[in-house]
Amino acid sequence: MAASSMKDIKLRIKSVESTMQITKAMELVASSKLRRAKARAEATRPYFTTLHATLTDIAYGNTEFSSPFVQQREVKKTCYIMIAGDRGMAGGYNANMVRAVTAHMGKKNICVLPIGKKAVEYCQHHGLELVTENYATAEDVSLGDCFSIARMLCEMFRRGEFDELYVGYTNFVSMLTQQPAVLKMLPIRYERAEAKNTAEGLTLYEPSSEAVYDAIVPEYVGGLLWGAMAESVASEQGARRTAMDAASKNAGEMIEDLSLKYNRARQGAITQEITEIVAGAEA
User: Are 234 and 37 within 8 A, CB to CB?
Assistant: First the structure.
């Protein structure tokens, strides 16, 4: 009976050790990817910050400025870009992002452009209207893809196919903290102001400030989307690294506990054998 118990414990220890090797390997891979993703996220931030400043200068420097991308209209339909991961084992990364976007959607009439396998699976499972499924693998989405998505969505917005555009993604705060967020992309918030009494306020745009503005907006939306992608990828790797680190520690604790049980069972078996030998000798 004791031998059978010892064998079971030994098999269990080997199983946990194998799992621990996998979680350690995944932690190392996530750490390697996280360094690159973090650097990319930090490098993208100045790009759309500069674009936003340019759009603001154009809008505020023209008293008669008007663009379809800043007009507030009755919201009949809202479009969401949902950025999730391609795989699980990343703690609450995917669940938290989906929960945040779902809460923001409420009971609106919506359509969704999912990025990442988990986002596509969620939308399909809940029967949501999809703009496209061409970006089902988040790792394969490039900078060019982000600008293609932006141009497509901006054109749909101009045609009136939806009246608002949001992106749901995850902000990378630190290695241990990732915050899901929903950012409004269109229409761009704009409050009419008087022309600046500066050289910027006197800048002339050809063929017109509206035409230049409308040409820059898809680039701005693409920059925002690329920044959201970079933040989300860094967040996913950070969450996976943290989850795998916790799993490795738990596996280590299980191995220690099982080893203690194995040693106790082994000691019990030895003690029983000695007792049986002594009893036989006395008989």
Answer: yes
Q: How many Å apart are CA 83 and CA 149, to the nearest integer?
A: 13
The set of residues, in sequence order, having a beta carbon less than 8 Å from that of 65 and lying 6+ positions away, is 58, 59, 190, 192, 209, 210, 213
Residue-by-residue pLDDT tens, the chain, 283 positions? 456 677 888 888 888 888 888 888 887 877 777 777 777 777 777 776 777 666 666 656 555 557 777 777 888 999 999 999 888 777 788 888 899 999 998 888 999 999 999 999 999 999 999 998 888 888 888 888 999 999 999 999 988 899 999 999 988 877 778 889 898 888 877 655 444 444 445 566 667 667 777 787 888 888 888 888 888 888 888 888 888 888 888 888 888 888 888 888 888 778 877 887 777 777 6
Give the 3-state secondary structure of residue 192.
Answer: coil
Q: Which residue has the tokens 């379809």?
A: 68
| Cα–Cα separations (whole angstroms), residue 155 to 69, 148, 158, 161, 206 | 10, 11, 5, 9, 22
For 169, the enclosing helix (H) or strand (E) is strand 164-172
Name the helix (H) or strand (E) containing 30: helix 2-60
